[in-house]
Amino acid sequence: MRDEPIAQAPARRVWRRPMLSRSSTEEHRASTPLELFFDLCFVVAVAQAAAQLHHALASGHVSHGLVGYAMVFFAIWWAWMNFTWFASAYDTDDVLYRLATLVQIAGVLVLAAGVPRAFDGGDFVIVTIGYLVMRVALTAQWLRAARDDRQRRSPTLRYAFGIAACQVGWLARLALPDPWGTVGFVVLVLLELSLPVWAERPAALHWHPGHIAERYGLFTLIVLGESVAAATTAVQSALDSGQAIADLLKLAAGGLLIVFSMWWLYFEQHADERLSTTNLDSFVWGYGHYAIFASAAGVGAGLQVAVDHAAGHTELGTWGAGATVAVPLALYLLSVWLLHVRAEPRPSPRRIAYPLAALLVLAATPFGEAVPVIGLLAAALVAVRVLTKPPSPDAARA
What we know:
This protein has 14 helices and no strands.
C-alpha cells in the first residue's frame, strides 16, 4: 500500500527544489500543461503506427502488419508509461524537471520519425536512438529522486539502474541478426515489464489514482481521435476518387457509431476506484491498457481498410476487410471488460454483455455491410449498459 510523503513541494517556481514524492491523496491533482504537451507529441507516433498498419493490411500482408504493429506500438506505449508513472510520483514542476521532460519529448519525436522504418523493414535504429534520448533524461530524473527522497532511495535507484541496463540491451540488440533480433526484442520486453515489479519490491512509490486515471483517459482519447482522423481521411480519399456517396455514408455512419461507443464504454467507469486497491491491481490495470490503446488505434486502421475495400483498392476480400474492424474492436471490448467491468461488485447480466457483444462483432465479419452492422452492435452494447445500470445509492434513497 502507499505511504504518505514526508513533505510537499512548494508551488513557487524555482530552478531546483527537492524532488520529494507527491501525496497520493492530493486534492485537485490534474494533468499539467507539460504532460498534455508530452501527450500531443505522441499523437504523431500513434498516427505513424496506425498508418503503417493500414497499408500492410490493405496490401494483404496481414501477419507482417500485425507483428510489426505490435512491436512498434509497444515502443510507443512503454515510452509513454515510463514518463506517466514517474510524473505522478515526482512531478516537482521546477526548471530542471521541465528541461528534462522537454528532452524526453525530443526523444519521442525521434522515435516517431523511426516508426516507418521499424514497421517496414524491422529497422529499429532510429526508434532506439529516440529511446536513448528519452531514457538518459528519465534516468537522470530517477537519480535525482534517489538523492532527495531518501525514504524511497532503494526503489528509485532500482528504477534508474534498471532502465539504464535495459537501454544498453536495446542498443546491443541492434547488432543481432534475424531471428535473434526478434528473440532479443521479446526478452527485453519481458525485462522491461518486470522492472517496475522488481524496483518497487522494497517499497511502493507514491502515485495518485485520480491523476493516473486521468492520464490514461487522455491517452485513450488520443487513440480514439486517431481513429476518427484516419476514417475521415479515408472517406475524403474515396470521395475524391468518385466512390458512391451512399456506400460511404453507410461506412461513415457505422464508423461513427463504433468510435462513439468505444468512448462511452471506456469512460462509463470510474477508473480511479479500480486503482485504489493494491500495487498488483494497479500493475495489471496499467499493463492491460496496452491492449486497449493498441486495439483502439487499430480500429482506425481497420476503418481505412474498409473504405479501401468499398473502393476496390485492397487485396483483402469481404471477410478480411470486415475482420480488420471486427478483431480490434472485439479486443477493445474484452480489454475494457477485463479491466473495468469485471470488477463490478455483484454478478450481473450487464457484465455478460461485453463478451457477448465481442462474439457478435466477430460473427459480423462475413457480411458485406460489416461496418454498419458492427456499429449497431456496439451501440446496442451501450444501450444495454445504460438501460440496465442500477440506481446510485443516493437516487435509491430519494
